[in-house]
Amino acid sequence: MELKNPEYLAEIARQQSVTRAAEKLFVTQSTLSQYLLKMEAELGTPLFLRDKSRLIPTDAGCICIQAARDILRIQNAAGDSVAALKNEGHIDLGVTSAWGTELLADILPVFKKNFPNVTLRLEENRYYLQMKALLRAGKIDMAVMAVAPDDDVPPQGYTHLRHEEIVLVLAEDHPFCAAHAGEETITVQALKALQGEDFLYSGKDSSIRRMEEQLFDQLMIRPNPVCELNNNIAALKMTAGGIGAMLSPLSYVHQAKGVRSFRFSPPLLRENALVFRRDVKKTEAMAFMEELIVTNSRFQEEPRPVYQKRK
Predict the structure, then answer these.
(1) Is it the case that residue 113 has pLDDT exceeding 90?
(2) Does domain 90-311 have CATH number 3.40.190.290?
(3) Which residues contact 280 (CB under 8 A, 6 or more apart)?
């Protein structure tokens, strides 16, 4: 049997659906259905059992699916190896925060000067769990990610880039600001004053959203969710307009107007990390990209401040 278009079979298995696989592959459902029927006819045995809304591989299907994945892996490895010899090819890079795209704007000119024939393909504005799934599926080579304290560490390990401080942000005329006039830092217990207050939640499954939910569960409070979004710049504008309070990375607050921020004591932190795909063959271009990211000035971590309560 000649296994043609192994990506078709691999995607059908991944999606457990011909319809969804066709959407991912940008081919018609009819094309994939005919492909599968022809393969099953050649082998004389079904490759999948049809169970309501999903396809379940048979024993023969599992063998063919693994063969398809092996072929794809060999093809990709060969292509990457040849491209590496010529310093050509591409790097698939994922970023989970807006600062990730800003980082690339900083380093891309230097990268392109050294590797003019390597294309950078960017997956942006994904959450940590989504980025982990893309790494695991081999969809991206490396990722710059924001990681919450309770996130599980990627099994292949990662490179620490910095700790990013998260702060409470409110409109300047919010009553909370008057109640804490002259204070720059607060304890998390002070958040109890936000019970029932309008609040801008970070996007579902984002690292900050998980930190918000953990804090509010710990304090047994529930602010009123006005909006859920993963754009810190837009959220800060909404906060300045009195739409609601929010938690934000401190680095964004420096650029905002009409708001006031409070740091926490002890500080509330999330981690920025660089992760490579487990089985990636690191090319010279990837190694150079890694060096540019790790040595970027935004990741030259300053000593954490020691907070003291005002008397």
Answers:
(1) yes
(2) yes
(3) 141, 142, 286
